[in-house]
Amino acid sequence: MANRSYLYSADSMPNEAEIPPLIRCISEHNWDVPLAHKLLVGRGTTVVPSMIWNPPIGIAADYADGAALLRDLLRAVGEGLEDDAEFAECVARTTAHLEKQQAKYFVLETGEIVSMTDEDPAASVRRLVAEDIPDAVARAEAAIAGRNDDWLASVRADWQRHFASFYSETLYFSFPG
């Protein structure tokens, strides 16, 4: 079985007392936290209690702003992939699912990914929130503005790794309701 990052949406953030009453499945990605997940949780990012594991290793962020950032980057990446039907289908499937599962927040569960190293999982998540996610957002914003063409070309060349996650209403860890 692969270790995965899991992305959900909810109308409230998990807290110490409870998880949100309605949790919608967005996406899961094997062996990594992909660029798409980092961008989706890239606005209003905060560490929250996990809905799956005990340590505080969940990441929540603003849904609308994160989805807009990903859509803008997909548009920029697509400017060099106009003839790639597989990329176009990935973008259509992703954006339709994001619209269907929309809520107030994204909640990213990283427990399986951050547990693959010897580093403390909570410290790994704090690093993701303080360094990795802001770095990905800054690079994406620069690329969208036309100031990071080399990075954009590298993302375009390997778009499957960054964007071709499994998007579904049911993930390995799904919640009732």
Structure report:
By secondary structure, the protein is an alpha+beta fold. The protein has a six-stranded antiparallel beta sheet. The protein is globular, with a radius of gyration of 15 Å. The chain is built from seven helices and six strands; from the N terminus they run ββαββααβααααβ. The longest helix has 24 residues, at 121-144. The model has no long low-confidence stretch (mean pLDDT 94).
Give the helices and strands, then pairings.
Blueprint: E1 4-10, E2 23-30, H1 35-40, E3 46-48, E4 58-62, H2 63-78, H3 85-100, E5 105-109, H4 111-114, H5 121-144, H6 149-157, H7 159-163, E6 166-167
Antiparallel strand pairs: 1-2, 1-5, 2-6, 3-4, 4-5
The oligomeric state of the chains shown is: single chain
Number of strands: 6
Question: Helix and strand string, N-terminal first?
Answer: EEHEEHHEHHHHE
Helix count, DSSP H or I runs of 4 or more residues = 7
Mean pLDDT: 94
Strand order of the largest sheet: 3-4-5-1-2-6
What integer value in Å does the Rg equal? 15 Å
